[in-house]
Amino acid sequence: MSIERDISSYAPNAGSPAYSGVLSRRVLAFLVDYLIIAILWVPAAVLLFFVGIATLGLAFFLYPVLYFIVAVFYFGFTMGGISQASLGMRSMGLRIVRTDGLRMDFLTAAVHLALFWLFNSVLTPLVLLVGLFTDRKRLLHDFLVGAVIVREEAV
Q1: Alpha carbon of 8 to those of 29, 57, 93, 125, 147: distances in Å?
Q2: For residue range 27-79, what is the model confidence (pLDDT) as tens digits?
Q3: For a surface tag, which of 76, 88, 138, 152 has the fewest beta carbons within 10 Å of its beta carbon?
């Protein structure tokens, strides 16, 4: 039994319309998601200010990483939630599917995000080139967590 056959039992086949236009939709979903995270960062920064005052300044060290903390919670709760998609992914009609048949959980979604940041910081926009040469338009971090991004209407 090949690995490809195992994957296809949970995710649509490679020739399926579920992967048509996925890369361009992922880029647009990324832009929408990071706009939402930037908007969520503002109340988080205000909340951290008051927490910092209450802790006599001990919480102020979180300001440099606050954007990343907000992003981890955002992606963890949206991609790891019921819809299995962030708000940007939902607006583009995308959903994440794990190749092992399990639902995406908070931790796996957070690891998916961390790997994306890691590969994007090393490969910058070249990270998208992998998707041009894979049959299911998967990127490196998708392979490592065992996930596939599919169009919602095709599933």
Answers
A1: 25, 52, 21, 28, 12
A2: 999 999 999 999 999 999 999 999 999 999 999 999 999 999 999 999 999 99
A3: 152
pTM: 0.86
Please list the residues that pair with 150 across neighbouring strands. Answer: 95
Per-domain residue ranges of the chain: 19-154
Query: CA-to-CA distance for 94 and 150, rounded, in angstroms?
Result: 6
Label residue 43 left, alpha or beta by phi (over 0 means left) and psi (-120 to 50 means alpha).
Answer: alpha
pLDDT, position 10: 58
Taking residue 152's Cβ as centre, other Cβ atoms within 10 Å add up to 15
| Beta pairing partners, 148 | 97
Nearest 10 degrees: CA dihedral of 132, 137, 142, 147?
A: -170
Alpha helices in 92-155 (DSSP H): 106-123, 129-133, 140-145
Q: What does the alpha-carbon distance between residue 18 and residue 27 come to, in Å, rounded to a whole number? A: 16
